[in-house]
Amino acid sequence: MSKMIYTPSNIDDGTKDSRQRILSDKIRDTFADKLRNPLVPIRTYADMLTEGKFGNLNETQNEKLEVIRQCASLLGKNISDILAMLDAMNMLESTEDQTVKDRRMRHRSKYCDDEVGGARKGARVVQQSE
């Protein structure tokens, strides 16, 4: 079994990946919390107005209320679509990250040998600290 040797390049990759994931999570949270949540009372009050909970509405008010309901519904659908795209992108990045890690592990296994305790590069042997 091989030991992982950290180099400045793969440490930076990990930091970059974690920053991208944090940013992606923040974007997703913003869409979910800041945009979707305000739609709940808009839809609820629109439904209550339509049902006459606050009194009867005239025809013009009902038409305008229907526009509000349709726009709120469309906005909710668009937000859900964006969240689904963000999730798909995160899944794709996770798959790509795993593929890169798999390649690194296969590559690393050619050069690292636990029995010898060194990392081989050509004819040289570089000792690993344990």
Automatic annotation (TrEMBL):
<dbReference type="InterPro" id="IPR036097">
    <property type="entry name" value="HisK_dim/P_sf"/>
</dbReference>
<dbReference type="Pfam" id="PF00512">
    <property type="entry name" value="HisKA"/>
</dbReference>
<dbReference type="GO" id="GO:0000155">
    <property type="term" value="F:phosphorelay sensor kinase activity"/>
</dbReference>
<protein>
    <recommendedName>
        <fullName>Signal transduction histidine kinase dimerisation/phosphoacceptor domain-containing protein</fullName>
    </recommendedName>
</protein>
<dbReference type="InterPro" id="IPR003661">
    <property type="entry name" value="HisK_dim/P_dom"/>
</dbReference>
<feature type="domain" description="Signal transduction histidine kinase dimerisation/phosphoacceptor">
    <location>
        <begin position="32"/>
        <end position="85"/>
    </location>
</feature>
